[in-house]
Each structure stands twice: as C-alpha cells, then as structure tokens.
Amino acid sequence: MMGGGGGGSGLILVREGFSVILYGVGSKRILLQRFQDECLQDKPVLMVNGFFPSLTIKEMLDSITDDILELEDCPVNVHECIDRIESEFQSDPQLELYFIVHNIDGPTLHTHKNQEILSRLARVDNIHLVASVDHINAPLIWDQKKLSRFNFLWWDVTSLLPYTSETSFETSMLVQHSGAVALASLRNVFQSLTSNARQIFLIVAKYQLNNKSNSNYTDLVTPFIAGLPFRDLYWQCRDSLLVSSDLALRAQLTEFLDHHLVKYRRSIDGSELLNIPVDHATLTQFVDQQEK
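== Origin recognition complex subunit 2 ==
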C-alpha cells in the first residue's frame, strides 16, 4: 500500500523505472494525495485529474513546459511539444518530474492519441508516473507498444471509498456509460480477430444498426434489442464464403462470446438471437471507422 508508510516503496519503484498503477474498488484519490503529501513535498509534481471533462492533453503538456521546464519558446503543435519535453529531460539527468494522474482511463485521456502521449512521457527515465484506473475494461486501451513504454507495476488498493470527486461531473465515466471507453475496448479486441471473424462481426453490427427501429428486431417486452437470428447470420456468412458449415460459424461465435463482443438469447419460438451489447452511437462510430 502507498499509505501507512508504504509510500516509500512506491517512490523507490518509480525511481527504478516502473510506472505504478493503482486499481481496485473504491476511490484512490485520498491515497494518491497522501503519497504526494508524505513523499513528494520538496519534489516537482504535476497532478492531473483525468475525470475532469474539460481536461485537454495540451493543457497538461503546457503545465510541464511552462511550470516545470519554464520554457519560453515551446512549440504549439502537440507532437513537437512532446518531442521538446523528451529532449529537455533527456539532456539534463538532474531534472525530475513526478507525474500523478487520477483516472488515467478518464473520459478525456483514454483515447489512442492521448494514451500515446502519456506513454511517451512515462518512458522518459526522469519522469515518474503514478496513476489510478477505475474502469473494469481500462487495460484494453493499451496495446503492447504502450504497455512497454508505461512499464506498469499494478497495485491492488481496494478501498471501498465512495467516488465523490470522480463522479462530481455530469460526463464522468462512472455516472453514465462511457461510449469512448467502450469504443477503444471494442477496437482493440476487434483487431485481434482473424479477417473472417472481423467480417462476421461486421455483419452482425450492420444488421443491428440497420434494424434498430424495426419492431421485428427490437423486443418490445424487454428493454434491449432482440438480435440477429443465428440462421440468418449463417446464410449471410455462407453466401459471402466466410464459413462452410454451421459448426464453423459456431466456432467463430465462441470467440466473440469469450471476448464479450456478442450476447446470445433465445426468442419465444426457440430461435437463437445475437446482439452486440454496445449502445447505438458507439457501434455506429465503430462501423464507420472500419469502413474508412
């Protein structure tokens, strides 16, 4: 634990090149604040609240260039700015920055672009990252390249404390379903599928989008979409030469089920129905991205 005297261990680990990431049920805000107060009193610290809906990555970089490095001619372009920050820290080993991020998986930080920038900061030897995550699917926003840069050391700090600060904003990821986190998770899992499996998944997705308002598709008794009949999916996949048999399709669907990409249910007449448990807007954005 980082509190109760364990903060020194966290300090040693980040100095050794690890990024410490806190996870578990309950707010970690007090724990991170205590770590800052007890271990980093006389050290340069940048604290970022990832749950702020108005936070931008440029503001975060500006805080480093203006307040920590005190640069007067920092580039406006984000990528040039991160290049400059890396260069400044690498050229002066005496420079140090302790980078504390509450909710690194927050609504404005979890995008591919922002995580790319955060991972670049974390890989700099004299920038030390300590962060927290709260979304159960947060690890899906990082690919192997980013994970290698972050070099995370995971600490379970389950506190069961209420998410008072984190949920004080209307767009907090814990107040409503975060479509963007779902989109990032969906995209990462989708990329791991075979070409045929991707095409099968897109057939289900497009059918779901095209039939959203169809009373024969939407279950009027229950509040969720009934789904695409398995037999209809089978014949579409067979016509497209994606599968050669019923068993081949079921094997592909087993992978979808394992990744929680689709859900099964049975209709009143016993038919097998499939639907994707993602909201309409997120699924639309995902399909649009795949067709570009």
